[in-house]
Amino acid sequence: MQVIMEKLFLSEFLMASGESALDATAKVDDLMAISVEGLFTANNVWMMLATVLVFIMHLGFAGVEAGFSQSKNTVNILFKNTLTPVIGILTYYIIGFNLMYPGFEVPGWFSFGGFFLDVPLNGNSTEYASGGYTYWTDFLFQAMFAATAATIVSGAVAERIKISSYLTFTLLFVGIVYPIIGSWKWGGGALDAAGFYDFAGSTLVHSVGGWGALAGIILLGPRIGKYVNGKVIDKPGSSVPLATIGIFLLWLGWFGFNGGSVLSGKPGAVSYVLVTTSLAACTGALGGLFAGYFVFKRLDFGMVLNGVLAGLVGITAGADVISPGWALVVGLVAGILVVFSAVTLDKFKLDDCVGAVSVHLTCGVWGTLAVGIFGVDTTGNALPFLPQLFGVAVCGITAFTSAFLIFFLLKKAFGIRVSEQHELEGLDSHEHGIRGYTIVYDE
Amino acid sequence: MQVIMEKLFLSEFLMASGESALDATAKVDDLMAISVEGLFTANNVWMMLATVLVFIMHLGFAGVEAGFSQSKNTVNILFKNTLTPVIGILTYYIIGFNLMYPGFEVPGWFSFGGFFLDVPLNGNSTEYASGGYTYWTDFLFQAMFAATAATIVSGAVAERIKISSYLTFTLLFVGIVYPIIGSWKWGGGALDAAGFYDFAGSTLVHSVGGWGALAGIILLGPRIGKYVNGKVIDKPGSSVPLATIGIFLLWLGWFGFNGGSVLSGKPGAVSYVLVTTSLAACTGALGGLFAGYFVFKRLDFGMVLNGVLAGLVGITAGADVISPGWALVVGLVAGILVVFSAVTLDKFKLDDCVGAVSVHLTCGVWGTLAVGIFGVDTTGNALPFLPQLFGVAVCGITAFTSAFLIFFLLKKAFGIRVSEQHELEGLDSHEHGIRGYTIVYDE
Amino acid sequence: MQVIMEKLFLSEFLMASGESALDATAKVDDLMAISVEGLFTANNVWMMLATVLVFIMHLGFAGVEAGFSQSKNTVNILFKNTLTPVIGILTYYIIGFNLMYPGFEVPGWFSFGGFFLDVPLNGNSTEYASGGYTYWTDFLFQAMFAATAATIVSGAVAERIKISSYLTFTLLFVGIVYPIIGSWKWGGGALDAAGFYDFAGSTLVHSVGGWGALAGIILLGPRIGKYVNGKVIDKPGSSVPLATIGIFLLWLGWFGFNGGSVLSGKPGAVSYVLVTTSLAACTGALGGLFAGYFVFKRLDFGMVLNGVLAGLVGITAGADVISPGWALVVGLVAGILVVFSAVTLDKFKLDDCVGAVSVHLTCGVWGTLAVGIFGVDTTGNALPFLPQLFGVAVCGITAFTSAFLIFFLLKKAFGIRVSEQHELEGLDSHEHGIRGYTIVYDE
Questions:
Q1: B309 to chain A, minimum CA–CA distance in Å?
Q2: How many secondary structure helices (H) and strands (E) does chain A include?
Q3: CATH number of the CATH domain containing B268
Q4: Any transmembrane segments, and where (chains A, B, C) (predicted)?
Q5: Cα–chain center distance at B202
Q6: Which residues on chain B are in Cβ contact (under 8 Å) with C7?
Q7: Could you list the mean pLDDT of each consecutive 10-residue stretch along chain C, which spans 443 residues?
């Protein structure tokens, strides 16, 4: 700043002393540096804010999952959700970032840029030419993203998975599976070349996580007492306020998740995305409310909350190419889908503690396809449908197969489910030695 | 960014090849575009951050209201507070934005700019010339604001209002009443022409919401068992930590509520507002603490928390025109007022579950009048008092009458209060079929 | 913005009418103003965001402390944690800011710039030439910092300290002790001249708070029933989810705490700091997990959470001068240290309710020394070790002695500990008249 100020004074001095046009030429290059730095700083501030917002989504997921699951397993869930971003960020540092953005020579299916971060030559470089942010911002933003894919699995498999199995799965899924799939589109790989469009990850993040969750609950089986004589037995969550905090924090974080996916602070583009994102969240809530009332004949608050998430997941693939009006439709449909998806899963005795498969997989697929239905590029042309279907299929098959394989091998090798006694008595007392809540008033 | 980089290289190339002064002229226009984009981006990033912060106030309100009300009604309150921003954003999209900023031909009392958003011709426009943000940022920031007016009502009428009545009221109050009143000042209407000053909404948002709340609790009547034999019976809230989370999130959000009302990221103006806002919140807490101790003879934590809000509401009308020193006074008085207002309401058997009328109406009026007492414009002249009184009266009469009418008609048509049995047993089990908290450790 | 737009049109007009090179000269100075304002606005937006993030750390501390302490004292803890930033901001306004940044004539140990804020001549000045932010942003950012030092003490002394003693201590510690110590480095005082390096306050904030906490628990003595027959008796906290919310909010806030300590939005420098900060938090969690398992033979979630904080405190002194790779080591060691520190304190019957001394003092010292081991300045030279040791010693002796003296005098004058009956029955019912949680379902 002091340098800038000196230049300002210099300029005034030159003007006062009757500078020539040639002096102006010299000043122009000073100015160029300041102007470019100002724009770059503004863009990077937005991207750092987006990073911070995506980070807080991990607290959001923790809240939703701990709030919607039983009090005897609260600590176990929070333990998983705290270690998930830890593992996610570290694996992304060690291997993920360079798997996802390997610098394909030609668009392909696999490439690897080497272990660890590729520290720019000049250390704290501001000259990272890839876009509106620095190398470091890029890494951290993408690392926060990566960890969300595993978090999605966490909620579905809660209350009966062995903690060691979950952590091993997370290590492999976030460290290897997620970044390789991501590279196909965001790293400039084969899906990108095929015309597949996924703005912020309805498929690459959410459905990938959702497929992982589905593989997990198939191999784990339902919780004891969940399906009895053809009936679905509710397992009341410990705290609806905690789940509500989680949902609001997820909506908050989505402003960074989608808004940051513009990869700069470009005013029109980013703010447009925030609007479509919010509108879809709103109609998602209404969709969940209406469908929930239709199915359960009550004002089902859980379905309103999951409806918000459904709308958000749904708009994520096309938040920048779908109009505000169609965003309302995308969200509404997602909110309705999430209810019927949850009911359908229960019919197949697929026990998903928090509705993660319905929210992230069902609505992730819907949102990706919606890009091929409602999406319009900047020149006003409709985006094609078939590449969307292709991308959904390719990513889905890969994510599900990989997750199934990991869980299957873990199951054969060590078992992935806790003992019946531990499940009934709760994971907190057995694995962690403390209770989630201890509310007493007498010594 | 790539374009910018190319220009930077071009500049260096020109310099190296001995450019003339005329080349500099051409570069100047390149530079202008970058400079303007940099400043615009920075301003818009701040406004998007402010939008995000105002959004999280809805979680703040949810926390305060669910924390301060009884555990048997927790889900019902969270349900209302989740749907309030949903309804608020959607109605603002459909009708509110164009009611509030209709583009008055001459300053008046009513004009309407048409349904839905007025999408800029070039789609993702960055050329929204009204200020330091885009059209989309403008809409979303104002939409987040709109929904707060209804949320204020939600807390006061909790624990006995019919959910259908509340949602219908919200639809009309946020969709129509709030934006019309807002248009009188912020839309360039008649109150603006009359010299009324309300920086960020002590009157236009908070007292409008507070008047709505007052109308609601008059027509609803107090909760069963609240006033017995001339005594006020405490109804302990479910969770003080939840209420505290709410208050901190509201303070956090207020940085966006007031800071964003500068309508750009102008460094001096915005940061000045953040300072006056924080100072008033602090002395508000002390005012609530001292007055609470004076009245109740205990360290009343509820009054400290409401004192924070009182200070924030109080400084909102004049955060940019009141000095830091006077901001301390505005906050302190607000913190004291909120306690005596709450006691007074109880004397009249006006049962406000969370103190919303005292916080938002009483302190909203105080803050608006304080502008006419302590406020100084940029040229150092005191702001006049009478237009403040006029604005308070006009908005108050309109807001109260409208809200009273809506609630009255709903009462006549469908009833606005739940049955005695539902109220006693709690709204959660009857309307939503789940409990707010289920903390058990044995299967 | 309108001014800018007019200039843009002017420029186009001039070009169209065949402007001369001299016209370009005039435009260059217009441009300079816009460019400088753009960069300044972007920098200041980041600093305001950092301020907002540090603010929310106070909710983080409140969550950790209320979550980790017994339910009978929940309101008391929240009361303290709400008043701590209130007192912190107000004392910093009255005296602290000018004690900490007094404008030393020569580097020294004490100077005072006068009471209250030194309002810039032009009021809402944007010309605050000290760096990438305004005078007001500077004050508020530093004020939010100041209050954290006292908050650290709050957690350690919880559950048995008299509220009046705590508030008096906070007033003196934050108002006088903290800013004087801070002035030695950040105010350009004697430690700065001695080559001591502390980027964001491992010593100046965290260990200062930690020393205060240590003094407090020595003079208070342990809680009744904490150490019985040579055994350490667990006192289960009220809510692990609340503590988890607290930890995540602290991590979130640390992006502002460390990221804002760059004192501008400089893209490379800030984003680098966010990366080292996050990596250390992650390995801190692992260090706590491993050491906790080694010591307690269980997956101790409390140690994972405190490990996150330990990593964050550890990297704070050198977040800008330590490489990402070494940041992993700094965090891991901090996470291990926090466990053994906690065990050691218990051996000496030093009862720290939330592990504040272990987190902030032990890891604050470690982090400061780590700068002298792993730190490298911008020219690639290793930072010296001895000034780090000197700074740790000088600040430690001063902070501990001052805190001890304040608590000692308060103890002699009024007593600092509540009665045995109040401690056993809980502070909430005796001092505040309400419970922290009231979860019932029958009227």
A1: 20
A2: 18, 2
A3: 1.10.3430.10
A4: 45-66, 78-101, 139-158, 165-187, 199-220, 240-257, 269-296, 303-319, 325-345, 357-376, 388-410
A5: 8
A6: 32
A7: 37 45 62 84 96 98 97 96 96 93 84 76 46 87 90 95 96 95 95 97 97 98 95 95 98 98 92 97 98 96 98 98 96 98 97 97 98 92 96 98 98 96 93 91 59
Percentage helix, strand, coil for chain C under 3-state DSSP, each rounded to 5: 70, 0, 25
Residue of C271, C286, C302 lying closest to A48 (CB–CB) = C271
- Nearest alpha carbon to residue B335 among B369, B380, B370, B288: B288
Domain of residue C253 covers: 51-432
Instruction: Give the total number of structural domains in chain B.
Output: 1
Cβ separation C44–B305 shorter than 8 A: no
Q: Is C194 on the interface with A (CB under 8 A)?
A: no
Partner A contacted by C125 (CB < 8 A): no
C387 within domain boundaries: yes
d(CA A120, CA A107): 24
pLDDT band at A378, cuts 50/70/90? confident
Largest CA distance in chain C: 94
Strands A231-232 and C231-232: unpaired
Q: Which residues of A24-59 are buried (b: 16+ CB within 10 A; e: fewer)?
A: bbebbbbbbbbbbbbbbbbbbbbbbbbbbbbbbbbb
Tokens of A124: 């704290």
Do β-strands C231-232 and C227-228 pair in parallel, antiparallel, or remain unpaired?
antiparallel
Interatomic CA distance for residues B320 and B275, integer angstroms:
10
Give φ, ψ of A232 to 5 degrees. -95, 120
List of residues 6+ apart from B303 with CB closer than 8 A? B288, B289, B291, B292, B296, B338, B339, B342
C-alpha span between B60 and C157 (Å, rounded): 28
Model-level pTM? 0.95
Distance CA A290, CA A299 (A): 8
In a domain, B165, yes or no: yes
Domain-located, residue B9: no
Helix (H) or strand (E) holding B27: helix B21-68
CA gap B102, A6 in Å, rounded: 46
Q: Which of residues 146-185 of B touch A (CB under 8 A)?
A: 163
Which B residues, 52 through 81, put their C-beta within 8 Å of a C-beta on chain C? 53, 70-72
Find the radius of gyration of the CA atoms of chain A. 24
Quick check: A95 pLDDT over 90? Answer: yes
Q: Do A239 and B89 touch (CB under 8 A)?
A: no
CB neighbour list of residue B211: distance below 8 Å, 6 or more residues apart:
B361, B395, B396, B399, B400, B403
Report yes or no on A403 lying in a domain.
yes
Beta strands of B287-411 (E only): which ranges? none
Name the helix (H) or strand (E) containing B98.
Answer: helix B97-100
Residues 378-417 of C with CB under 8 A from A: 378
Q: CA A248, A250, A255: angle at the middle one, nearest 5?
A: 100
